[in-house]
Amino acid sequence: MVHVERYHGGDQHAMSGYWGPPTAIANFCEEDYALVFWAAEFVNSFTNLAYVYYAFKTLDRGESLISTTAFPNLALFFVGVTSFAFHLTMKYDAQIMDDLSMFWVCAAIIYELYTIGRSTSVKVAFGSALTAILGYISARHYTLNQLWLHNWTFIILVTAIWPRVLFLIRNRLDGPERMVARRQFRVGGLCFLAGFLLWLVDGAYCGPLRSARETLGLPWAFLLEFHGWWHILTSIGAGNCIRVTKVLTGKTPAVSR
Q1: Tens digit of pLDDT for each residue in 84-98?
Q2: 8 annotated ligand binder
């Protein structure tokens, strides 16, 4: 039995869109198929291009998405692609791909941060354990048809990142590099928190937001699509975190940024 946790089911065009009736557990405040026939959530789809942009923008000179030093970039790229597919179709399988990509971009950053200076055997053991744990959670998340396991796993992964970054900035960097890294990480963290607040407002006050959008009309109504702002702001946060991670792992100097 599917445990439905949709915020806003029953939109008037939802059953007649190109991709068919939504099957995703989560649905957001943007009205399904209200703008175009071929995109369930137009704004929420195309704001994911911000993740793709920062995946490429945070590559260092000579790196590509398939470089062994760019796993966080590749993971962020997949966040953008899978989240685009999810919001475009509002299908459950696409939602799962989006959910899991969020796990793996955090895992890629965690691996980099917690294996700095470790031996190859320790890196292999840590990477294998992290992959096994997240693999099991991913499989359970797919079969349980719920949101709580995804939400709590994501919270735990993010919580594992920020104190480690602050610790490494304090212990591995000095002078201008420390100042630049702290500023980048602070900006990223504030963007992430602002995006999270807008994500909460989008779910809690959808009725007033939809009324305000109708009053404003297009294109100004787009400014009140707060889940889209979540995508943009968290892409900035993730991009800054990737930049700082590369500085801490010695892959690029902070002052060059």
Answers
A1: 999 999 999 999 999
A2: no
Distances (CA, A) of 26 to 66, 86, 214: 31, 10, 23
Tell me if 177 is assigned to a ligand binding site. no
CA distance 105 to 29: 25
Q: Is 3 annotated as a binding residue?
A: no
Largest CA distance in the chain: 60
Rounded Cα–Cα distance for residues 102 and 131 (Å): 14
pLDDT of residue 180: 92
- The string of pLDDT tens digits covering residues 185-198 is 999 999 999 999 99
Q: Are 134 and 107 in contact (CB under 8 A)?
A: yes
**Residue 142: both structure tokens together:** 């797919």
Is the separation of the CB atoms in 106 and 85 below 8 Å? no
| Res. 252 pLDDT band, cuts 50 70 90 | low
Helices (H) and strands (E) in the chain, counts: 9, 0
41 is in an annotated binding site: yes
| Token pair of 213 as six digits | 């959008």
141 is in an annotated binding site: no
